[in-house]
Specification:
Shape: globular
Largest sheet: 6 strands, mixed
Structural class: alpha/beta
Bound molecules: zinc ion
Mean pLDDT: 94
Number of helices: 11
Helix content: 25-40%
Oligomer: single chain
């Protein structure tokens, strides 16, 4: 669909879901009332900016106030087929007919075809992803599902072999477990197993891990991005250059402070609106950071793409009036292969913000001054800010430490 037609289509769907949710969802009506809006005030995607963003982190509290779904559901509980439970706990209503097409677009774009035999190694218990979203979608596109769930690695290798399964759904780290287990069992994953395509989600997929797995199994691996409540919000095509937005969602990138939409190329929070009539989430903040591109994709799809996920909003911060985010720290790290772990520390001295890029080196470097200058230049290039560079002994930066550590105190 050309851009203009797509916009008309989304505006029409938006008007429909706003009318529906206003009539049937207590929480959505409350959200509209809080800013004195009526459904007629929301005609286009631009009008969405009049509505506050509901943060996912607020959902637990909202659900306590109006159990079990916070009033976001638009049908009586008796009309549901299932109720899912995500960590929080957050309760999610599961409709009888799963109508979302976004995961189907994701799988087909990644090479899944009717007749494929897929092991679904996502966790089937409690959460909606494996059963509700992935299982239903595999059925929808004509694939045969083996509902293996997580774990039982050795048994799963036997299943792959015996059933000649050719498709994998799961996390990249579990696929790696399967490769290692198969090799431990004396099998060559490339020759003895028949995996051809992989649909991975729920974890970051470093390129080094992707190429390792693609090579080891001789398969194609494509990743998708989404959340348990909103579903798919982006998927890779064969071209592997960012994640296409699905057709049945509205995805905005917004300034986390003001909620205003940002143009393509500018990083901000991913905010989504679904057209789900049972659970219409309108302007939901995911807490994840990304940026969009409208550049044409050689695959022929005309949708915008999320360039990549840049980290969490709560780690995005303003230094001397400019936003910095974890994705920039990663970009600096990637430019210099000598760098091991790294972290950006923001402090305040004599009423001025100071920023330091701290890092551990993988091995001794000499002369160190030259590398220091190069990294300082990268910090300036990537963050558009001047910052110090500090080398620290290995083991100083803990695994899983925040990429951006804001140590400023305000009085
Ligand atoms: Zn594409």
């Amino acid at each position: 669909m050309p851009h203009k037609k797509r916009l008309e289509y989304l505006n029409r769907k938006l008007r429909g879901i706003v009318q529906h949710a206003y009539k049937h969802s207590v929480a959505f009506r409350g959200k509209m009332d809080s800013v004195d809006l009526k459904p007629k005030d929301i005609q286009t995607l631009k009008d969405l900016q009049k509505l506050p963003v509901t943060k996912k982190s607020d959902l637990v509290e909202l659900q306590k106030k109006h159990p079990p779904f916070g009033g976001f559901e638009a049908v009586p509980i008796q009309k549901l087929r299932r109720i899912y439970v995500s960590p929080g706990p957050i309760y999610e209503p599961g409709e009888t007919d799963y109508e979302e097409i976004a995961w189907a677009q994701a799988m087909v774009a990644g090479g899944f075809r009717p007749g494929d035999i897929a092991i679904n190694t996502f966790n089937y218990h409690m959460v909606p992803f494996a059963l509700h979203m992935v299982d239903n979608t595999l059925h929808r596109i004509g694939c045969i599902t083996v509902p293996t769930g997580v774990g039982n690695t050795e048994q799963q290798v036997h299943i792959l072999k015996n059933l000649k399964a050719n498709a994998f759904c799961g996390t990249p780290s579990f696929l790696l477990n399967l490769a290692e287990k198969a090799e431990e069992m004396g099998l060559d994953p490339r020759k003895d197993l028949t995996l051809r395509v992989g649909f991975v989600a729920a974890e970051m997929l470093p390129e080094s891990l992707r190429s390792n797995l693609e090579e080891r199994f001789q398969m194609t691996i494509r990743q998708s991005y989404g959340t348990a409540d909103i579903g798919c919000l982006g998927y890779e095509c064969t071209e592997k250059n960012g994640m296409h937005l699905p057709e049945d969602k509205i995805v905005e990138i917004v300034d986390p402070e003001t909620g205003k939409q940002l143009p393509a190329g500018q990083p901000g929070e991913i905010v989504a609106t679904t057209f789900n009539k049972v659970y219409p989430l309108i302007r939901f903040g995911t807490g994840d950071l990304s940026l969009l591109t409208d550049a044409p994709c050689p695959c022929g799809r005309t949708s915008s793409r999320l360039v990549r996920i840049l980290g969490r909003v709560d780690q995005m911060t303003k230094v001397r009036g400019l936003f910095i985010h974890p994705g920039q720290a990663d970009e600096i790290g990637a430019r210099h292969p000598q760098i091991g772990r790294y972290q950006v520390v923001v402090t305040r001295k004599e009423n001025k913000d100071e920023m330091t890029f701290r890092m551990e080196l993988k091995e001794e470097v000499s002369p160190i001054e030259k590398l220091k200058e190069e990294i300082e230049r990268s910090v300036r290039d990537v963050m558009k800010l001047r910052g110090g560079v500090e080398f620290v002994p290995r083991g100083t930066i803990l695994e899983g430490a925040k990429k951006i550590e804001d140590q400023r105190t305000w009085d």
